[in-house]
Amino acid sequence: MKILEALQNPETKLKWKLEGYWALLTLVVTFFSLYPILRKAPQYQYVWLIVLFVVVSTTLFRYIFFLKYTPVSHQLFIKAGILTVSIPSFFLLIRAVNAFLTFADIQGIQSQFEYMTAVDNENMTAYVKSVTLFFGTSAILLTGALPFRMMVSIWRQYNKKGSI
Q1: Does residue 163 lie within any of the structural domains?
Q2: Does 99 reside within a domain?
Q3: What pLDDT is recorded for position 65?
């Protein structure tokens, strides 16, 4: 019953609406990041890694800087769960970026685009490396900062400091 009552709250409805807008923004950023790759190289093997990095980066950006406006802002146990999951996620993201960099160093990203002209191959290689490293690095940094943000939020909620 409490869940149904909470969903009727106008503030909660607004937070869920904002969550939908953020999800839409995440889809748009993902689409525009992947479109050049999928248009020229639909068989590229690290597409899902880029999707993961974009989704993690935008979601954690929202939870770190706009936590007050998310549906989990007053959910103590969900924040504790996010804090717990973010610690191993930090190391998993580091492994994923390391796997990509190992692939880039040993096999070479350009090997995925051999059928392209030399200029297109060079441009696509630079683009893929830039996008992957940008979102991968931001995902790692934000995952590293997230536990501290959750601890501050839990502390403020537990001690009734007013701000989440």
Answers
A1: no
A2: yes
A3: 94
